[in-house]
Design brief:
The chain is α/β, with parallel strands linked by helices. The chain has 6 helices and 4 strands; from the N terminus they run αααβαββαβα. A 4-stranded parallel beta sheet has the order 1-2-3-4, with helices on both faces. β1, α4 and β2 form a beta-alpha-beta unit. α3 crosses α4.
């Protein structure tokens, strides 16, 4: 997250990384499964979404524009927040649980980024389901690689795809933040 924060800060945005895990110490990459289980058992997507919504309410009092970018479970939470009128944009990267919430309707510009392959679900089926809804504010991009391909510290990191994805994010932000 520090890497992403550093990259996005180059665009001139204030970046806030909330800790939804309620743990002061970060998990190592080898503990990814433990971190996910902790999140599912102790927080969950609904509670995580409530926490982010409360944070958005506070941030809207301070900032003219507020958006969310989430990865994995955070991407699913971001997707849920795309219809709450508190965001000026939403970006979700490899949110596999979005498949449980395909009936959402974004009310702000929303970009979803997926890898070409996921172990837990059929990426193309999810993308097709989302695209059939023809949501005008929704953009979906798929890049070569696996879950985590944008993370330079992950075993599934793919530099070429990550560079393309970060350029897509940058272009998306420039396009939608320039409208205001």
């Amino acid at each position: 997250m520090k890497f992403v924060k550093q990259e996005l800060s180059k665009l001139g945005a204030d970046i806030i990384c909330p800790n939804l895990l309620s743990k002061d110490v970060s998990y190592s990459y080898e503990e990814e499964g433990i971190a996910y289980q902790n999140f599912v058992q102790n927080i969950g997507i609904d509670e995580g979404s409530k926490q982010i919504t409360n944070m958005l309410i506070q941030l809207k009092q301070e900032y003219e524009e507020v958006g969310i970018m989430g990865f994995s479970v955070g991407a699913t939470i971001s997707w849920l927040c795309s219809e709450n009128n508190l965001c000026d944009f939403v970006i979700g990267c490899y949110g596999s649980r979005i498949r449980d919430y395909i009936n959402r309707r974004p009310v702000c510009p929303t970009l979803l980024i997926f890898p070409a392959e996921e172990q837990t679900f059929d990426v193309d089926r999810l993308i097709n389901s989302l695209e059939q809804k023809r949501e005008p504010l929704l953009e979906i991009k798929k890049f070569y690689g696996f879950h985590g391909f944008m993370n330079p510290f992950s075993q599934t990191f793919n530099k070429e795809s990550a560079d393309e994805a970060f350029q897509t994010v940058s272009d998306f932000l420039k396009k939608h933040l320039a409208d205001h």
